[in-house]
Amino acid sequence: RPLENKLGANSTLYWRSNLHVFEDWCGGAVGHLRKNLHFPLYPHTRTTVKKLAVSPKWKNYGLRIFGYIHPFKDGDFQFSVASDDNSEFWLSSDETPANIRLVAFVGKLGSEWTAPGEFTKFSSQVSKPIRVLSSRRYYFELLHKQDDRGSDHVEVGSYLLFSCPSLPLPSDESSLKMNEVGHVPQSLASHADSYLWGAQRDEHGADMLKPDPRDIFFLTPKIEPSHVENVLVPCAYSPTYVVKDFPIARYQGLQFVYLSFVYPNDFTRLTHMESENKCFYRESPIASILPAEGLFSKENFEVTTPARTMLDFNSSEVVLSEGVQVTSFLQMSEMTESQQKALGGPEKTQEEEVEEEPCGLELLRSDWNDLRCNVSGNLQLSESEVVDVVAQYMEKLNEKNGGIYTLLRIINVEKRRDTARGNRYLMELELMERGQRTVRLSEYIYVLLHQGKSEDSTEVNPEGPATVSTQSQPPPSAWSLLYGKPTLCRPLRLSWRHDVMIHFVVPVKNQARWVQQFISDMASLFLNTKDANFNIILVDFDSDDMHVEKALQEAHLPRYQYLKRTGNFERSAGLQAGVDAIEDGSSIVFLCDLHIHFPLNILDSIRKHCVEGKLAYAPIVMRLGCGSSPREPNGYWEVNGFGLFGIYKSDFDRIGGMNTEEFRDRWGGEDWELLDRVLQSGLEVERLRLRNFYHYYHSKRGMWNSHNKKTPKD
After folding, report:
1. What broad class of enzyme is this (predicted)?
2. Which of 552, 541, 644 is closest to 598 using CA atoms?
3. How far is CA 656 from CA 156, 287, 460, 651, 676, in A?
């Protein structure tokens, strides 16, 4: 139970109270503390203080001090609070946390502060007289938030108008494990998930927070598999950008990872962060050929893409045997007037040009893995191209099934470009079946270029196809101009399994609050998706701050495996041990981290981007900044990291697994080394920014190679 306090006349409260410390969290307002994932149940430090006055001399932390006040006699009290930065003093009308109310505070914005002992700077610092009875005890909470500036302190003063208090009996939390939180009171001031404060949040500027049908499309019943069999003729799938058996220097594999194009816009571009990082515009191809001034003027957009003199190995573009480079992937709606004239296309009015210009910046981006810009989103795919492909597929689908399907929505289309041989699409459509039920179609298709026609494509010949006659036939679509007359086919051995088992492998050591959060998140994933085809494998390097196996047993998980190891923490060895415990080679391994927030569609996303013998998956996670949360996601895409990695176990074993010899008690680089071998084995690595996929902010404090802070002195 919370500790009790002696209440002295005209003095600071003293004897002992429970003190919980939440470290390494930015912001100076108490509201910032409530956004902390671990607040209020899982602090970094649990201790006691003798009085309600502390000054630990730290930066970027929050405090929660709570307990009971037990007056000796009836009387009227006033309470006051002083702090740098903000603080709040809450008092209950009795011993029940549910009856707590705010009686005094310093600031709400994080910019307000007082000097030590300065109780009269703001009118909000001093409470109204509060009547207390000696026959009762009163629950209280003191919350304090400090940023990285100023002289931190917080203290509560009391003024007894009539009488004196009694001496209470103390208790402590020293014998409890970090994840034992049943005794921690929750109240309006401090509640898990801070859901009581949700209505007070300002709307965040991240477009990614807005609902998108992709996020829950996995809940839609899937189409009958027999209805999509043999809709398209089968064809060999062998993209030219695969580097099987190609000698790759150490850590150079990421130069051979290409990005996919996405339709419709998934709003993964971090527009709300561009005030801090404008690399999207600096790295844009159009910015490199235009003067800085007047970037968006009409004149500046009437510029054609400059020719390159050599092959860029950071792009999937290829040079044909004749030496003509395949470069352009502009669609008709984004081409300049001069380009359209060369192709025999229609001229645009000034109004059309102005309306369509904003799309150009997105569609001019290359598919190379840009390691310099961490706020840009997924590459955008032209609507005209998508509509063309979908229309052809729907015609084939209804031809096979007697016309029973109607297209409701194009939910998601992902394109992996190979301009020499053909383009691979993941097509996800919402269909109406026989006018009675809605079904989900999610299939890979291949748009194969005819060998005899590929030389006539616009991408090879910038002046346009030599065989096209605009006088004898209507203007073709932009997509058909670019790709000639492609053939839709079903790529062999490129079907994804909708119910394959996924094993999340996580090595841990003494990270109780994060382990507990991970387990809770996985239980929530199971509850919300009803998908039982995943397994949690925790490899525990002798943790002593919680009973990891007990926490797994008590959680509502579909299945789990607990592996106990001794010695120092070794990430590579831990991951390898977890994979070795998996018996089914035709299941998916997801090498994971503790500090991850998963979207509800994570299982579906992993499954459809992993194909045995063909595809591995390295989703790009958004790394949240200090003080940021999934509800207010300020941060950047982790474009360099490949530590979150999905791959079939058979493929993982075939490439030799983790490098446990070179990467023992250190980590950093083991993901790039693994990537090198994955690519050399002939696998593609699918690389996409995944909506609402976050890496929580944390410092190195309290991790396997660091030491904890000292607790504040009384």
Report:
1. transferase
2. 644
3. 61, 43, 40, 9, 12
Judged against a pLDDT cut of 80, whether residue 22 lies above it is answered with yes
Q: Please give the torsion angle defined by the CA atoms of residues 42, 44, 47 and 48, in that order, rounded to the nearest 10 degrees.
A: -80
Q: Is the torsion defined by CA of 477, 483, 486, 490 positive or negative? A: negative
Residue with token string 């594999």: 253
Check: CB of residue 516 under 8 Å from CB of residue 42: yes
In whole angstroms, how far apart are CA 161 and each of 46, 126, 128, 145, 165?
A: 34, 14, 12, 30, 12
CB under 8 A, 24+ apart: contacts of 338-347: 338/302, 338/304, 339/304, 342/462, 342/463, 342/464, 343/458, 343/464, 343/465, 343/468, 343/481, 344/464, 344/468, 344/470, 344/475, 345/475, 345/478, 345/481, 346/475
Say if CB 404 and CB 226 are below 8 A apart. no
Burial class (CB in 10 A: 0-12, 13-18, 19+), 47: middle
Place of tokens 């007697």: 402
Mean of per-residue pLDDT scores for the chain: 81
Residue 332 and residue 481 in contact, taking contact as beta carbons nearer than 8 Å:
yes
Strand, coil or helix: 102: strand
How many CA atoms are closer than 13 Å to the CA of 614, on its beta-carbon side?
A: 19
Question: Which helix (DSSP H) or strand (DSSP E) does residue 350 occupy?
Answer: helix 350-363
Q: H or E stretch including 616?
A: strand 615-617
Whether pTM exceeds 0.85: no
**What b-and-e string marks burial along 542-580, b requiring 16 or more CB atoms within 10 Å of the CB?**
ebeebbbeebbeebebbebebbebeeebbbbbbbbbbbe
pLDDT at 324: 30
CA 688, distance to chain mean position in Å, is: 11
Query: In this structure, which amino acid lies at residue 559?
Result: R
- The Cα 114–Cα 102 span in angstroms is 19
Mark residue 708 as left, alpha or beta (left: phi above 0; alpha: psi -120 to 50; beta: remaining): beta
361-383 burial: b if 16+ Cβ within 10 Å, else e: bbbbbbbbbbeebbbbbbbbbbb
pLDDT at 161 over 50: no
600 strand-pairing partners: none
Residue 220, Cβ neighbours under 10 Å: how many? 18
Out of 39-43, 44-48, 407-411, 630-634, give the one with best mean pLDDT: 407-411
Q: Tokens standing for 371?
A: 């390691």
Name the helix (H) or strand (E) containing 430: strand 422-433
Secondary structure letter of residue 575 according to DSSP: H
Fill in the amino acid letter for 170. P
Inter-residue contact 699 to 514 (CB < 8 Å): no
The per-residue pLDDT for 639 is 94
